[in-house]
Amino acid sequence: MKEEKERLYYVQNIPVPGTPKPAHTPSAWKETKVIGKRLPRVDAYERVSGSAVYPSDTSLPDMLYGAILRCPHAHARVLSIDTHEAERMPGVRAVITGNTSEANVDWPYLRGFKTKLFDSICRHEGEEVAAVAAETPYQAWDALKAIKVKYETLPFVVDEQKALEASAPIIHQGGNRSGETQAYERGNVEKGFAEADMVLEEAYRTESELHTPAELHGCVAKWDGDHLTVWESTQGVYAVQARVAEVLGLPLANVRVIGHYMGGGFGSKLQAGKYTIIAALLARKAGQPVKLFISREETFLCVGNRPPSNMRLKAGVKKDGTLTALDFACIGTGGAYPAGGTSLVDWQVRDLYKCPNVRTKMTDVYINAGPSRPCRAPGHPQGSWALEQMLDALAEAIKMDPVELRLKNIPTYSQAREGNPSYTTTGLKECLKEGAKAFGWEEAKRKAVEARKSGHVRRGVGMASCLWYAGGGGPPSTVIIKLFSDGSVNLNMGASDIGTGTKTVMAMVVSEELGVPIGKIRIENADTGTTQYATPSGGSKTVPTEAPAVRDAAMSVKRQLLELASKDLKVDAVGLTLEEGKVLSKDDPSKGIRIAEVSDLKRRGVIVGIGYRGPNLEGKVVNPFAAQFCEVEVNTKTGEIKILRFLSTNDSGRVMNRLTFDNQVFGGITMGIGLAMTEVRILDGNQTGKMVNRNWHDYKIPTALDVPTEVESLPIELEDPESNTTGAKGLGEPVTIPTAAAVANAVYHATGIRVTASPINPITLSQLLSQRRKEG
Ligand code: MOS
User: d(Cα 412, Cα 618) in Å, to the nearest integer?
Assistant: First the structure.
């Protein structure tokens, strides 16, 4: 478990001794005026009009452009690098390689593993070899071509199962196993299988999926003496600051990281990249700011992926639907370095359904491919692909409805965590019941079967459910709210809005507490120089972490404001309330003044409120739950699959903004359809070891034609006062976990063919269909 903790530091609720406590312990909101509404984004105009400034838009005086020379081989030793010609090219201001003394720094992976920033062994295609800064991007790219590198190519392996064979090329001293095999066991699995009426076993595989956010990875780096400022497209400015300071040996205070808007990350921008360090080193050498954004092709090779998983699951069930045993194994890969290739792949098996006897075993191996990074719900969609297809098969085997089988096995506490802590709420039952009802599950199932009698176009329905290991949020977080004398508000928060609507939700929290209109609330962009400490936005924890801190700060401002206004109104502060920019007497609403008229506020100029995120309840776990349902149409002659409709039920606690909530659902389902049907990283295992589809033409992400127009979001809004002072549990990741498995189950329902290896596309499905025809 140690490795998981290290890798998933950004999703953990780690109680930090001595962390400041919130001053207020408010009860749950009852009736809300703003929270829960369907409100457009506070920055919608900026985002859609193009006036929003993203880090990749940053332009500074005297700015140079950086570019990175990358190894063209899957595995090679760098014998020599000749940069003489490149250094004399027009516009070139700095060239660095592994031989440049200033660039002799270490780059950290997990488990304390380090390589040189420019290592003499390149263990994957695209590994960094040298870098250039020049006056224009074209000059920089031309200069890269003038660098002469002699490589000794080495044998490679890009298949994680082959990497375990005795004859496989060795990627690191000590062999191709990345860390210890992780084993988990509870109960007695053999006894559980003996008690079962039905035991099934199946192998599953999910392909590697790439993050490919719309905004590329990169930054602008600028030195001012020994102080470095970095404008970076990131999910967490403080995480980038920490990594840059560590690698360059700088005090944290000398590194300022500025976030601003950002165009997507999905986990691939939780940390600084090698490109961040390279930009800083080039800028220092050239004595000028350097902008270094990598190309689309480079993002496919070098800045992470959802790792592929090879899974085997054996499951036992009684006739009445009681699960008796689950035995799961996974071989995965984080690529060429320790990067968590199997992190959390077994978590659904361990904890989603009530089962006394569970065993899991995970083997992470090295291959010659780019290191993985956390990708929207790390490990979960992979494990879900196996578990949820198995549940479907078990249900069929015991002639029980798939929804009914899941309802038989609902947990109330976390079985896989030590001490079996209870969930604050377990909305799984509600998700399944309400979801099936709203989808018209029974009727759609019946109709699909009835229509099957004729024609080659078959309909099918499928469903899957999930929990997300994290969510919930937790300390630390600090925010500052300033209420100005005219009644407008500044919210200072160090968390990034990664495109999910964080700023909008936080403005709504301020508006709810202070009665200030949303349009009068200004939110600072994440910036280690000016905004307070926050953990990276990820793990579906941003709202549950930051919103309680914002609420605490707002309540502090409110208490101070009512004190000041009580003098003007001659009413005790406890008798006052805030509404629509006014301080009003609760007993006599005719008695009131506008915030801008509070005389002591005019004299003071500002009220400052500081808010903190308090610790979560001890011995309780805050996890979101979900279920998804879909209907597909399959052409059994061509293998074409059309997804007709999707429905997602989410128990994520309180809905803070119904519009941004629903949009997360639509985005998550789209991404899940990608995993199910279109996305696959293809590495040439025979001749080169290179990725052959590293562009948006050959690597298919779902388009508008691949996703249904009919997608319904159905929040299951259980009250959860134990989770935190807002009752929100986190949404961004559970929305994508069960999608792929639900599609696979629907395709099975339509065709009788179980596609156990992703992606399900006309090529893979028509092969399976013709195989079945041959077998008769
Ligand atoms: Mo995410 S993988 O928590 O950004």
Answer: 16
pLDDT at 512: 97
Tell me the CA distances in angstroms from 507 to 6, 86, 503, one per residue in order: 32, 51, 6
Q: The pTM is what?
A: 0.97
CA distance 239 to 533: 10
Q: How far away, in angstroms, is 390 Cα from ligand 1 center?
A: 26
Residue 98 burial (10 A CB sphere; 0-12, 13-18, 19+)? middle
Q: Which residues line ligand 1 (CB under 6 A)?
A: 235, 265-267, 270, 374-376, 378, 538-539
Q: Is 302 exposed, middle or buried (0-12, 13-18, 19+ CB in 10 A)?
A: buried
Q: In what order do the strands lie in the sheet with 358-365?
A: 182-186, 358-365, 323-333, 309-317, 198-206
Name the β-bridge partners of 461: 631
Q: For residue 724, how far is its CA from the centre of ligand 1 (angstroms)?
A: 21
The reported pLDDT for the residue numbered 776 is: 74
Token pair, residue 143, equals 């200069």
The residue to mutate among 266, 269, 731, having the most atoms of ligand 1 within 8 angstroms of its beta carbon, is 266
CA of 742 to the centre of ligand 1 (A): 22
pLDDT in tens, 431-490: 999 999 999 999 999 999 998 877 899 999 999 999 999 989 999 999 999 999 999 999
Helix 739-751 crosses helix 441-450 at what angle (to 10 degrees)? 30
Q: How far is the CA of 265 from the centre of ligand 1 (A)?
A: 8
Question: Tell me, what's the pLDDT at 15?
Answer: 66
Residue 2 pLDDT greater than 70, yes or no = no
> Closest residue (by CA) to atom 4 of ligand 1?
267
